Amino acid sequence: MNFKNSPVIDQVGIEERVARFNTRSIKKQSKVSALKLALNMIDLTTLEGKDTEGKVIQMCNKAMQPADGINDLPTVAAVCVYPTYVAIAKKTLGNSGVKVASVSTAFPSGNSLREIKIEDTKFAVENGADEIDMVISRGEFLKGNYNFVYDEIAAIKETCGTARLKVILETGELSTLDNVRKASDIAIAAGADFIKTSTGKIQPAATMPVTLVMLEAIKDHYLKTNKMIGMKPAGGISTAKAALQYLVMLNETLGQNWMSNEWFRFGASSLANDLILQLAKEQKGVYYSKDYISID
User: Fold this and answer.
1) Cβ(138)–Cβ(110) below 8 Å
2) Radius of gyration of the CA atoms of the chain, in A
3) For this structure, is 72 an active site residue?
4) Is the pLDDT of residue 12 over 80?
5) For 130-147, what is each residue's pLDDT tens digit?
6) How crowded is residue 105: how many other Cβ atoms within 10 Å of its Cβ?
7) Which range among 34-38, 64-68, 173-177, 179-183 shows the weakest confidence by mean pLDDT?
8) CA distance 18 to 210
């Protein structure tokens, strides 16, 4: 397939639009609804070498009940773990409605044989993963080997079966917004259900300009095919204020149909605590101490 004809990105124009999104404000009851929506869009994540079953169980419990003493908090959207912890996460979450996502394809580097990446994905799916977060081969992409990247995504998509596939571009390694757009187009064409900015292991991770470019790729695909694709900015979004700015950008770019966790996620576990604190402030009129909320 020919992926050399993706649109050229006007970086100045993108930055000007982002600046306008950042001037919007959300007040009173609309703010509470937006804060709850953002919390319901989070993928709580633990992807560390020191992960244990106990840590995963604790995170799953927080996913189902984000905080005590605050009324009407939604669950988060999903928990995201390594394939070896999918089964314990699935068991802990039960019928709560919280999804289990698993990284695969030699996360976070993506440097492995395709056969191993497929086995990695198959293991996660067989253990009950509802969603797979894969990384693209950035080295092949930057060499211009776009068909390799396309074929690899397509192979993982086939392996996923009914599990939804989120394709991580690792935009911090792609250097330019033009590359971000091209990688988005490749991922969407190859069958991605979501496109995702980052692993959270590389800086910069999610930024609003990068996310806007990816939203525009989703919009153009929708206008051509009438098929919706999801979006997940991940890494670096840690405040409720920032989350609300992303939601404004999402609504004004893609519209109300995307304003649910079926089509938009935040990959930012630290964000959950700030959203909880802001919701507590709206309910009780005072800020909780961070000591009242678990870190994980």
Assistant:
1) yes
2) 18
3) no
4) yes
5) 999 999 999 999 999 999
6) 28
7) 64-68
8) 10
Residues 6+ apart with CB under 8 A from 228: 218, 222, 257, 258, 263
Q: At what angle do helices 208-225 and 11-21 cross, to 10 degrees?
A: 100
- Contact in structure between 149 and 139 (CB atoms under 8 Å): no
User: Catalytic site residue 196?
Assistant: yes
Question: Using an 8 Å Cβ cutoff, are 207 and 241 in contact?
Answer: no
Distance CA 105, CA 236 (A): 23
What is the band of 26 on the pLDDT scale with cuts at 50, 70, 90? confident
Asked about 55 being catalytic, the answer comes back as no
Distance, in Å, from the CA atom of 47 to the CA atom of 234, rounded to the nearest integer, reads: 13
Query: Which entry of 117, 130, 196, 274 is annotated as an active-site residue?
Result: 196
Flag whether pLDDT at 238 surpasses 90.
Answer: yes
Q: Minimal CA–CA distance to 261: which of 38, 68, 84?
A: 38
Tokens coding 113: 């044989």
In this predicted structure, the answer to whether residue 1 has a pLDDT above a threshold of 90 is no
Does pTM top 0.90 for this prediction? yes
Q: Using the predicted structure, report yes or no on whether residue 292 has a pLDDT greater than 60.
A: no
The active-site residue out of 117, 130, 232, 274 is: 232
Q: Which of 133, 185, 193, 274 is catalytic?
A: 133
Label residue 295 exposed, middle or buried (CB < 10 Å: 0-12, 13-18, 19+). exposed
Which domains, and CATH codes, for the chain? Answer: 11-292 (3.20.20.70)
